[in-house]
Amino acid sequence: MSNVDIFVACLLLALVIMLFIFSARPETSDYAPHRTKLDQLMERRDTIYDNLRDLRFEFRAGKFSEKDYEETKQLLEIEAARVLAEMDILTGGTPTPATRQAAAERRRS
């Protein structure tokens, strides 16, 4: 093998490596921000509040009976209290009465 053959082989190898490096496309998940547990809990809390608001509107519109409305509302409020309790634990905040109730119910479950 001559020096010219080695030079050409190295040049081709360098071109292939450069082509590989610059043609690679990052996935969209590479750009997505990573969500923390607190971010997930805050999103869940907001969703529950939206559901409570929608439930109240639909009850006033006559889509729910009084019993169904109260049952669903209570379930959503308990879930909201659980989420708030978890948020308090993560942030080291002082628990509120609602978060204490959710923690007590979680222990019973």
Describe this structure in words.
By secondary structure, the chain is mainly alpha-helical. It has a domain of 75 residues. Helices cover 76% and strands 0% of the residues. It contains 4 helices and no strands. The relative contact order is 0.08. The model has no long low-confidence stretch (mean pLDDT 85).
Tell me about the largest β-sheet: none
How do the helices and strands follow one another from N- to C-terminus? HHHH
- The radius of gyration is 28 Å
Task: Calculate the mean pLDDT score and round it.
Answer: 85
Structural class assignment: mainly alpha
The low-pLDDT segments are none
Question: Based on DSSP secondary structure assignment, what is the total number of beta strands?
Answer: 0
Helix amount, in percent? over 70%
- Termini gap: 77 Å
Strand content: under 5%
Query: What characteristic shape results from the CA principal axes?
Result: elongated
Count every helix, treating DSSP H or I runs of 4 or more residues as helices.
Answer: 4
